[in-house]
TrEMBL record:
Keywords: ATP-binding, Cell membrane, Membrane, Nucleotide-binding, Phosphonate transport, Translocase, Transport. GO terms for molecular function: ATP binding. This is Phosphonate ABC transporter ATP-binding protein. SUPFAM superfamilies: P-loop containing nucleoside triphosphate hydrolases. NCBIfam families: ABC_phnC (TIGR02315). InterPro entries: AAA+_ATPase (IPR003593), ABC_transporter-like_ATP-bd (IPR003439), ABC_transporter-like_CS (IPR017871), ABC_transpr_PhnC (IPR012693), MetN_ABC_transporter-like (IPR050086), P-loop_NTPase (IPR027417). The keyword Flavoprotein does not apply. The lineage of its organism: Bacteria, Bacillati, Bacillota, Bacilli, Lactobacillales. Residues 4-239 form the ABC transporter domain. Coiled coil: none annotated.
């Protein structure tokens, strides 16, 4: 019983070169998948497809039973609200406080109007505070996002993504802007919380050592093709 099925996915930005070529992958519940590969391999494009930030040239993306490329507006909205996204540059609202940034993770489940006017339920606030406490930010919930360090901002990013109770978590180079020690800490939070909340995660990284440490499955992409798809133990240095 798979959560996400990708079939014959092909992408060309210019109509000539295929930056992804006939990708076929199945993702199951509770996997923690790391996608690795050199710069320009197609990793970001792949992540952005699944979230439908870019539209593929061909293929199918079946998420939780719906073909997202054929889905109507309501099905798409429902699917998106089940997919959390974590970004390299955090994408926080810098002038907003930490708590509000996390509550905004529910956009799609609440109206933009309610969000703008801060109309969140007490229950939601409590959930956001609990998440922030789990990543050690309980003391900082009323700080402005731009007062935080990069590692703290990414912890907020993780909480925001989990606030919507997603089935799938997508992270595009979540530690690329952080130092090695902070990177490991962020990966620990991401891995542990994914497990705890039963979320399937797909994380793009270019640090192979960190990928091996956390992934339950590694997918290697090179020049738009899957060149490795297995348990990290089987990864050799030459992919
Ligand atoms: P990676 O994340 O592995 O570095 P990307 O998915 O960002 O790879 O890029 C794959 C290829 O697609 C690269 O050759 C890149 O230049 C190209 N590309 C990425 N985004 C765009 C875009 N918006 N328009 C045109 N080409 C793009
Ligand atoms: P990354 O490697 O993290 O994907 P890039 O520097 O490749 O970052 O891309 C940064 C932005 O530029 C992305 O939004 C990407 O879509 C866009 N981009 C990358 N390559 C191209 C390209 N050849 N033509 C147009 N846009 C591109």
């Amino acid at each position: 019983n798979s959560l996400l099925d990708i079939r014959h996915l092909t992408m060309s930005y210019d109509g000539k070169v295929n930056v992804l070529k006939d990708i076929n992958l199945t993702f199951n519940k509770n996997e923690f998948v790391v996608v690795i590969g050199p710069s320009g391999a197609g990793k970001s494009t792949f992540i952005r497809f699944i979230n439908l930030l870019v539209k593929p040239t061909g293929g199918e993306i079946i998420f939780d039973g719906d073909d997202l490329l054929q889905a109507n507006t309501n099905q798409l909205k429902a699917a998106r609200s089940n997919i959390g996204m974590i970004f390299q540059d955090y994408n926080l609202i810098e002038r907003s406080n930490v708590l509000k940034n996390v509550l905004n993770g529910q956009l799609g489940k609440i109206s933009a109007f309610d969000s703008i006017f801060g109309r969140f339920t007490e229950e939601d606030k409590q959930r956001a505070v609990n998440l922030l406490e789990e990543v050690g930010l309980g003391e900082h919930i009323y700080k402005r996002a731009d007062e935080l360090s990069g590692g703290q901002m990414q912890r907020v990013g993780i909480c925001r993504a989990l606030m919507q109770s997603p089935k799938l978590l997508l992270a595009d180079e979540p530690i690329a802007s952080l130092d090695p020690a902070t990177s490991r800490l962020i990966m620990e939070y991401l891995f542990n919380l994914s497990n705890q909340y039963g979320v399937t995660s797909i994380v793009n990284l270019h640090q192979v050592a960190i990928a091996k440490e956390f992934a339950t499955r590694i997918i290697g992409i090179k020049k738009g093709e899957v060149v490795f798809d297995d348990h990290p133990d089987y990864l050799t240095d030459d992919i």
